[in-house]
Design a protein that fits this description.
Blueprint lengths: L3 E3 L3 E3 L3 E3 L5 E5 L5 E5 L2 E5 L9 E4 L5 E5 L2 E5 L9 E4 L5 E5 L3 E5 L39 E4 L6 H9 L5 H8 L12 E4 L1
Helix pairs in contact: 1-2
Amino acid sequence: MADTLKAGSSLSTGDSLTSANGAYTVTLQEDGNLVLSEGGNAVWATGTNGSGANKASVQEDGNFVLYAGDKPVWASDTAGKSGVWLVLQDDRNLVLYEEGNNGVWSSRTVTDTPPAPAPEPEPEAAPVQTITEAAAPPPPPPPAPRTYTVVSGDTLWAISERFYGDGNRYREIAAASGIANPDLINVGQVLTIP
């Protein structure tokens, strides 16, 4: 797709401009809204959704106008400028220029952040595949803490050796179980084993 719309040209519903670097698009959507997007996320819009806008024209009089049939629903208010053209720049800004390369209107969406690199093209011999993005699965719930009920003769050291293979980790069990004195545990006490 082109990145420029010259005077006397227009976009119809579903048409779009794409920046030369391929990172940004501006599309006249089915809902009548003209939307500038980056990676599928809207960064600017005319706010004309639901207006019935079906044409976005760069007019010979210097105005950039969205029409619903013959009725204007949004305009850049730049009438009186000559030799105008609209361009979607590589810096994410949609700009209407006049003769002499003077910017007369813009979406004010300039970004200093470079666009994400475009994916590597498939080898020519490879068939074209349609990739459908699946929603990322939710993260698994944290595991339920294990518990252990103290029996006669148990010590935190012995319990730590049983669960971790290392008696020195008894402090972890004491901290998780709210035990202030690791030398004092009671039969029947339920411990949390982190």
